[in-house]
From TrEMBL:
Keywords: Carbohydrate metabolism, Hydrolase, Magnesium, Metal-binding. Pfam families: Hydrolase. This is Phosphoglycolate phosphatase. Its EC number is 3.1.3.18. InterPro entries: HAD-like_hydrolase_sf, HAD-like_sf, HAD-SF_hydro_IA, HAD-SF_hydro_IIIA, HAD_sf, PGP-like_dom2, PGPase_prok. It is an enzyme of class 3 (hydrolase). Belongs to the HAD-like hydrolase superfamily. CbbY/CbbZ/Gph/YieH family. It catalyses: 2-phosphoglycolate + H2O = glycolate + phosphate. Pathway: Organic acid metabolism; glycolate biosynthesis; glycolate from 2-phosphoglycolate: step 1/1.
Length: 226
């Protein structure tokens, strides 16, 4: 907590915005299962958890395009095929979140902040339709004042638009807010919004160490911030 308070002149932030996948929840096992089902429907080999981990972070449509391309760079994927594959992926993913787990320390940090009266928001690139059910299923249903999915607004992280929207809703200035995330999309969106940013070391960042993005703080678990 000492470290967190140093970012806010001895106080706590008034608003904390959280990324979801790779920050609060280890969701890759279920995302990979749905990707592999989508590929199997096309008689294509499974991608597997290790590769899918590096493809998560830019929302479902980009994840599916990366899976069709077999790598991070997905130019050249046919739009019609990508659209059909996205529909299959979304249908498969909706069915089963049983392998998704909340990271140790995440629930504790959220309830600590709630107890201190800090406003909380989820700002994820994951499609909005999955959020209420997934959070409820994993015991985080009452955690957030705002839920912003990747398709809630016209822009997605690393665009700062969703963060700026939440700041406006909350009536909080950027320097009184904090963003907590795992990927370069999070750090870059927070920087562009002027919001201090904490990164977690255990998440998904396209196979690169998140330290290279120079977050204001880097932690190995969220309860290190309590
Ligand atoms: O769905 C994704 O690609 C990533 O979601 P996130 O923004 O919560 O990491
Ligand atoms: Mg993430």
């Amino acid at each position: 907590m000492q470290a967190l308070r140093t970012l806010f002149a001895g106080e706590l932030p008034q608003l904390v915005m959280f990324d979801l996948d790779g920050t609060l929840m280890d969701s890759v096992p279920d995302l990979a299962a749905a990707v592999d089902q989508m590929l199997a429907l096309r008689s294509r080999p499974a991608a597997g958890v290790e590769r899918v981990r590096d493809w998560v972070g830019n929302g479902a449509a980009v994840l599916v395009r990366r899976a069709l391309a077999g790598g991070l760079h997905h130019t050249g994927v046919d739009d019609t095929e990508a659209q059909a594959a996205l529909a299959d992926f979304l249908r498969c993913y909706a069915g089963d979140h049983s392998r998704t787990t909340v990271y140790p320390g995440a629930a504790e940090f959220l309830s600590f902040l709630r107890g201190q009266g800090v406003k909380l928001a989820l700002v994820t690139n994951k499609p909005e339709r999955f959020l209420p059910e997934l959070l409820g299923e994993k015991g985080l249903g009452d955690s957030f004042d705002w839920l912003v999915g990747g398709d809630t607004l016209p822009m997605q992280k690393p665009d700062p638009g969703a963060l700026l929207w939440v700041l406006q809703q909350a009536g909080v200035t950027a320097d009184q807010a904090l963003f907590v995330g795992d990927s370069r999309n999070d750090v870059r969106a927070a920087r562009a919004a002027g919001v201090p940013v904490v990164a977690v070391s255990y998440g998904y960042n396209h196979g690169e160490p998140i330290a290279a993005e120079n977050p204001d703080l880097l932690v190995d678990s969220l309860d290190a911030l309590i």
